[in-house]
Amino acid sequence: MAGEEEDRRAGALVAETAVAGGRDALGWGCHLVHLAVMVYFVAGWLAPARAALLFYMVFVPAVALQWQVNKNACVLNNLESFLRTGRWRSSANREEGAWLATLCEDTLGFRPSPLQVNVFTYSLLLALWLMALIHLLYWKF
Predict the structure, then answer these.
(1) CB atoms < 10 A from the CB of 116, how many?
(2) How many CB atoms lie within 10 A of CB 12?
(3) How many whole angstroms separate alpha carbon 116 and alpha carbon 132?
(4) What is the spatial distance between Cα 27 and Cα 44, in angstroms, rounded to a whole number?
(5) Buried b (16+ CB within 10 A) or exposed e, 72-87
(6) CB under 8 Å, gap of 24 or more: what pairs does 76-81 form?
(7) In this predicted structure, which of 3-7, 38-42, 102-106 has the lowest mean pLDDT?
(8) pLDDT in tens, 58-81
């Protein structure tokens, strides 16, 4: 019961401090870091340096593995929850475990199912990782 009360207070705090777009400064900061990681996922395979490609090829599966062991939640969302509530998980954080679904809902007007998000995400990450591998093996550095 105490956890539910903390979640309620955290949700109230978010509502009180929210700015245009429904996010406060912490929420915007976490959202922008997520967007930067997403851009890196999409474009990182194009890196012109061997070391950057090797980092990318480790980073992408590491993030995917992190999602698996963290109940499909991103450590960035957990960090935001921790900073707000003092707990690693919070039901007041609607993006925890659903950042891409929430982004889709907010921008496109529909919320994909968890299965749809997983199929899209892991298929895309595999394709991008394979492109990085091809780039690494066949690009003349």
Answers:
(1) 13
(2) 11
(3) 24
(4) 25
(5) ebbebbbebbeebbee
(6) 76/30, 76/33, 76/34, 76/37, 77/30, 79/30, 80/26, 80/27, 80/30, 81/10
(7) 3-7
(8) 999 999 999 999 888 889 888 888
| CA 84 and chain centroid, separation | 18
Residue with tokens 């979640």: 7
Long-range contacts of 121-130 (CB under 8 A, 24+ apart): 122/64, 124/41, 125/41, 125/60, 125/64, 128/41, 128/42, 128/44, 128/45, 128/60, 129/45, 129/57, 129/60, 129/61
Would you state the structure tokens that stand for residue 26, as one six-digit string? Answer: 């912490």
The pTM (predicted TM-score) of the whole model is 0.74
